[in-house]
Fold this sequence. Notes:
Helices cover 66% and strands 1% of the residues. By secondary structure, it is mainly alpha-helical. It has a two-stranded antiparallel sheet with strand order 1-2. Helix 3 (68-122) packs across helix 6 (218-238) and helix 5 runs antiparallel to helix 6.
Amino acid sequence: MVCSTSTNENEKEEECVDFKGNPADMSNTGGWVAAGLILGTELSERICVIGISMNLVTYLHGSLHLSSSKSANIVSNFMGTLNLLALFGGFIADAKIGRFLAILIFSFICALGMVLLTLATTIQRLKPPSCETSGGWKCIEATGSQLAMLYIALYTVALGGGGIKSNVSGFGSDQFDKSTPEDEKKMVYFFNRFYFCISVGSLFAVTVMVYLQDKKGWGVGYGVSAGTMGIAVFLLLCGTRFYRYKKPKGSPLSVIWRVVFLAMKNRRLPYPNHPSLLNGYDSSKVQHTEKLRCLDKAAIMATNEANEDLWIVSSVTEVEEVKMVINLIPIWSTGILFWTIYSQMNTFTVEQANIMNRKHGRFNIPPGSFSFFLFISILLFTSLNERLIVPFAKRITNYPKGLTSLQRIGIGLVFSVAGMVAAAICEIRRKSDMKNGVKTNAFWLVPQFFLVGAGEAFAYVGQLEFFITEAPEKMKSMSTGLFQTTLAMGFFVSSLLVSLTNMATHERWLKNNLDQGELNNFYWMLAILGVFNFFGFLILASRHQYKSQHYENEIETRRIDDI
């Protein structure tokens, strides 16, 4: 039996192999057990990364004495780089080493980064002296040399985490044979359960890890995270003989570059009378489409003689695969602002919590632990999605998954806008209470965490499913990396907006002391941008044609031509 990775009957099925390189025994490999061991690595990566991102701003501002805006930008840039490096991790896996080896190597790198971060937060000479209270509150900001070790650690974690992210979902989905009805049914719920599992890791990070960082010391918290990643590497290795593997098919980026280069080179050549005259039309694994017709010129042969030189002419298969990738870009662009909004949950919202009343009885809740409500919301809506929303939506749409990937993304965008409205209202309430000498209860932050978390439950699953199912099969890891760059750009745009806002308002909105700033105006701005982004998404989504629709339309066109 072979391991089908194709949603199109015209594409050849791809053979799965075992760890020795022989055809895989489908009865003893793959399935939920193998997928579960793989997901353990992503769960550990989330414990490490979320344990850093959700509380790092507290360390930067409180221990290293950096300004609020600089602390927020360091966190945003770290998260942005991590997700951007996912594209590199996907490229390496698809081109050279395969998904399993990529996950293993990047897991070791992530564990190394956590060890370095443990040292950076433990060694005393890497921190500035404590603030002086005599003659007024005076704090000395950490120097560049003191921050160097921290930056090295953070970006080592970013490299490892990015490589894990881009390959785990693809390698996990490889464990199911979509040519069988049983496994095809399991695949319907795979992405939901995948995100449910990693949300559990995130929840653990913002409760146990953040508590250890705040109460037992930063070194202890990050040291435990490093140990967790070490355990994940061990478990991943334990499942070696149970996985289904697929061999790398070569660099997908070189295919993209070659098709674009040849299309530009042949731009003056006339189109053939019929697409069947294009190189490799009859043997194409992917149906030819009329969209982005300019790229078809890469498959035009300058002479009537067949030529196998890849830099002379491309095949219809390669051209259509590049078209698929380009078709993802418009939807990709609309996801950026969602993650810009989401990044506020890691930065300014944590700083808000730090200056609000966080006492619950005798217990003073760490500011980073309020992200608990973000991940509870994600878990809640992920569970409701599988148990309630999907069955209900099936009755209305008659669609097997209930909601399409684009519909999920759209719902997520709406929730994100509502989250920023709630955040602005909360900040107005906090400033009003402050003027009356009252410290606002930090539980006022719960609505914004809850709404943005609900948005992530829809948007993340929708975007992940969209990029994996709509991209060419042999570019699955790279397409996951492309999805992660949406997150990266969101965090980078957040840093850019903070810097531009500071310039435009002369640091009036985003002051180091939030009590003296106007953070609510920044939230209102994000909400307004979110509304415009949502309407742009609706226009682009209405014009997008799913890969399966391309095939159906082309088959119908060919049938009519034959008649």
